[in-house]
Amino acid sequence: MNAVHRASQVATVSAAPILRTQKLTVRFDEFPAVREVDLSIADGELRVIIGANGAGKSTLLDLLCGKTLPSEGEIWLRDRNITGIGEAAIARSGVGRKFQTPTVFKDMTVLENLQVASNRRVRVFQNLFDRVKPGPSDKEIAVAERTGLLGSMKRRASELSHGQLQWLELAMVLSQDPKIILLDEPAAGMTAAETDKTAELLLDLAGGHTVLVIEHDMAFVRRICRTITVMHQGAVLAEGTAEEIEHNPAVIEAYLGSATLSHA
Ligand SMILES: Nc1ncnc2c1ncn2[C@@H]1O[C@H](COP(=O)(O)OP(=O)(O)OP(=O)(O)O)[C@@H](O)[C@H]1O
Question: From the alpha carbon of 234, which atom of ligand 1 is closest?
Answer without folding.
Answer: 14
